[in-house]
Amino acid sequence: MKRFEQRVVEVSVQRIDGTASSCGRDVLAVEEPLEIRLDYGAGAGRTRRSITVTMRTPGCDVELAVGFLFAEGLVRRREDIERAESCGPPAGSLGIRNLVRVDLSPDVTVDEKRLARNFLTTSSCGLCGKASLDALPAASRTRLPDGFEVPASSIHDLPARLRSAQTVFDRTGGLHAAALFDAEGRLLGVREDVGRHNAVDKLIGAQLLARAVPLLDRLIFVSGRAGYELVQKALAAGIPMLAAVGAPSSLAADLARDANMTLLGFVRDGRFNIYSGAQRIRREAGADAPPDRVGDRRRGPPGRSRDEQHGYPPSDQLPP
Predict the structure, then answer these.
(1) CA distances for 129 relative to 113, 114, 121, 225, angstroms
(2) 231: enclosing H helix or E strand
(3) Rg (the chain; Cα; Å)
């Protein structure tokens, strides 16, 4: 195994094509555990505690930890964080540091009940380590304000703009991505990870560290499906619009409607579905078309789709 960088490794493979076989090389996205430790309290009551271990692609680890703590409600603003750093000894053949320590300001009160989640978080599921239903992060009851609008034409351009910024996906085809855009569809930031929830945490963590939260004039676009957890993370950051290449879940759509968030799914092939918050999509006059039959909404015209040309697989082959 040859190391190119912390996020990518090259490995030997045997390729089978019909009845023929050959030896070659392939490039894989790195997946490593990351432990997040929290230091909180004042004076003699200062406590250090391991909060979670998440499986992630190395890179932007401090942003990931901060975004995770923000989504969990353990930090609410940049001033809550006294220090955050990647630490611990280099581990494994890649020499990656798999620990981030976050020190909270002494005046920050930590709800011990929120620390009940002290289990492994897989790269495919950011909620799987919850010890009980009560340990789930509380969904905000605040309804997002109107006023932020995006042209439908800018939504159509999101897959290509994100795809052009996915440097590791280009080499491995194995990473999710989350990207931040403004109302004109300009790309403001992108993060990649084997876990879609990690990519979102990295993206929002970077904005929190930059003191840019809440993000009331931004939209977030994700390369996979839109589950409840992604809507919850976007809502915590005040993001009024979440768009996804894949499908949303029913619970994600319910939460988005309750929060007055615009939720878009199947953003590909020059089309998309609006599941809530249609008032934020600015459409050209005469753009209405006859309604699709149920079940037809994810398919475009016959032939190779525009998003397949940009490197995304068909909708029914999206990674988990």
Answers:
(1) 14, 12, 5, 20
(2) helix 228-236
(3) 20
**Secondary structure of 190-213 in HEC code, one letter for each residue:** EEEECCHHHHHHHHHHHHHHCCCC
Long-range contacts of range 26-31, CB-CB < 8 Å, 24 or more positions apart?
Answer: 27/171, 27/172, 28/172, 28/174, 29/57, 29/168, 29/172, 29/174, 29/175, 29/194, 30/6, 30/57, 30/58, 30/94, 30/96, 31/55, 31/56, 31/57, 31/123, 31/194
Q: What is the pTM of this model?
A: 0.81
**Of 166, 313, 167, 165, residue with least CA distance to 245:** 313
Q: Given CA atoms 196, 153, 173, 275 in this order, what sign does their dihedral have?
A: positive
Residue whose structure tokens are 């430790």: 37
- What is the number of H-type helices and E-type strands within the chain? 7, 16
Question: Does residue 163 surpass a pLDDT of 90?
Answer: no
- What tens digit of pLDDT does each residue of 71-125 get? 988 999 999 999 999 998 888 777 889 999 999 999 999 887 767 655 445 445 5
- Burial label, 69 (beta-carbon count in 10 A; 0-12, 13-18, 19+): buried
Judge whether 60 counts as a catalytic residue: no
Whether residue 214 is preceded by a cis peptide bond, meaning omega within 30 degrees of 0, is: yes
Exposed/middle/buried for 316, CB within 10 Å: 0-12, 13-18, 19+?
exposed
**Side-by-side strand order, sheet with 8-17:** 2-5, 8-17, 20-29
Residue 194 or residue 261, greater confidence:
261
Instruction: Check 23, 60, 87, 125 and give the catalytic one.
Output: 125
CA dihedral sign, ordered 267, 272, 274, 275: negative
Looking at residue 249, what DSSP letter applies?
Answer: P
CA distance 22 to 19: 10
